[in-house]
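@channel anyone free to eyeball this complex?
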Amino acid sequence: MSTIAQDDTAQATREIMYREALNEALREEMLRDETVFLIGGGIAQRGGSYKVTVGLLDEFGPKRVIDTPISEASFTGMGVGAAITGMRPVVEILFVDFTSLIIDQIVNQAAKYRFMSGGNGRVPMVLRTQGGSGGSLAAQHSQSLEAWYYHAPGLKLVMPSTPYDAKGLLKSAIRDDDPVVFIEHKQLYMDKGEVPEGDYAIDLGVGDVKRAGKDVTIVAWSGMVRRALAAAEKLASQGIDAEVIDPRTLVPLDKGLILDSVRKTERLVIVQEAVRRGGVASDIASIVQQEAFDYLDAPIEIVAGKNTPIPFNAHLERASVPQEADIVEAVRRCTYVE
Amino acid sequence: MYSQQFLVRLYRTLYTIRVFETECIKLYRQGLIIGYFHPYLGEEAVATGVCAALRDDDYIVSTHRGHGHCIARGGEIRKMVAEVLGRQDGYCHGRGGSMHIADVTQGNIGANGIVGAGIPIGAGAGLGIRVRGTDQVAVAFFSDGACNNGVFAETLNMAAIWDLPVVFVIENNHYAVSSPVEEMTRIPDLYRRGEAYGVPSGPVDGNDVLAVYEKTKEAVEMCRRGKGPALIEAKTYRHGGHHVNDPGLYMPKERLERYKARDPVGIGRRFLLDPGGLAEQEVAAIEREVDQRMEEAIEFARNSAEPSVERFLEEVAQS
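replying in thread with the prediction:
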């Protein structure tokens, strides 16, 4: 990962899982700042469905690691109220699909409060949740809904793809004075990667080059990054050198990194797991065609989920979201290698 | 017994809310205020009595009908008038308007355009208090209409299981916009819902400022002792429609007249004379002083600049 290589002050690193990296970020921030507390369903005694909060109840006690009833709208609203009054809550919603229940508190309340109050008030809250397909969890537990939050002014939106990014970005999200929607990917929790032992933070709005290349730019985030990297390896064996860029935060978006890469490679493929219609990929494409039109040598390719609810059957599920072969094919199309 | 000073403070608040709303309605009719404007006329005693029982470091969360709460919590009326006129010197620099005035420094988390949404936010202030371990209290104001929103039930339950220092204040003005409470629920005594969640709950005459104060004081003390939450249903009545342009034709005249005869501002005024012991002319002097402050507030607001479009666009370009 280029980010680690660039960081001279990085402490000793070791390989840990994405979920462990998140756990470290929460633990270290709770030690650092006593206004940080966690609230969500099954996060305390059970340690979370994906074991992200394991051990934190024992260390910090039930006042700071709070199990809730299944009352998403209201415990999210309580996070908003606590944040306005000086706390830094991390609210966990088990699946991004369930955030349909909290849209009012996130979009009408948290996102707008600073603006509506004329800068009077702040909502330093993190909404942690996870999305994505790949486990036959069917249509209400597999969605990629980042576009909902991308669309709402006032929110920051983070979607880490590696353990290193997960830890550093979660720390920045917790320290941020504005509401941050932090969407993890359910297929990444067991992924391992190099992570420093101590404190480091990754600024929101700074993307990362996950693989340098010169022939084509592939922009991907969250669960699609490792798929894009796998596709890039396959393309390398076919003589196409792809650059893979992970914006890491969709809001703010590191436009500069994407545009610089496109100006170099002159070709762009954007990969999103979310459905094609109304997605973030379309917006990135519109930014690039407006700001780097003259550099493009081919139409921008978007590889996205089909416009369908996610099916239960594993074959159908795979067919509904981008696979490695779809990315390879799109790259070959825009590099005119058929 | 209440000190004269305390009764004067209550009446000054009641009367300020009355004058603020009455004068703003005039500004609305003149076209100076536009958009939605929900007057608190007829409900003044609820905000006044509740806020009188709070400390400076406590919190309140308000509603779309929020001017009264803001004033009772010590809000500056000149910044409020400027805001409802959409001016730069308003609380929100013209970004919020009537439904979004907040004054966090005064412990006022603010008004809200979404009915019921403030209930969990107010309880969240209570949750923060519990995490910090202080003896502050949070008050959530909301309406009979909001009681039929899911967050009411959810939040009441969570506040109960965590013993949060939160006082839930239902301002039962008998209408959810235009729908009478009796038609929207089988049990119009809304406080009884609190009992179902194990929350000490009771009704109070929402037009009697001293009754509201006493009831709230009791609830607040319970919360400070770690025995929260508590719920109060203040029974009151709007003196008009849902907003300035709603004539409220669905409100039976006879019932409106009955409530107007029990006008909360009039009741507070009588308390000043007895037991307060003030003379009629002393009360009139308080009223003149408030009238004058309101005139100055309107003058201030009218002279305040419109927010700069250029600066707004600069701010927006960065987000």
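from a first look: Chain B has a mean pLDDT of 97.
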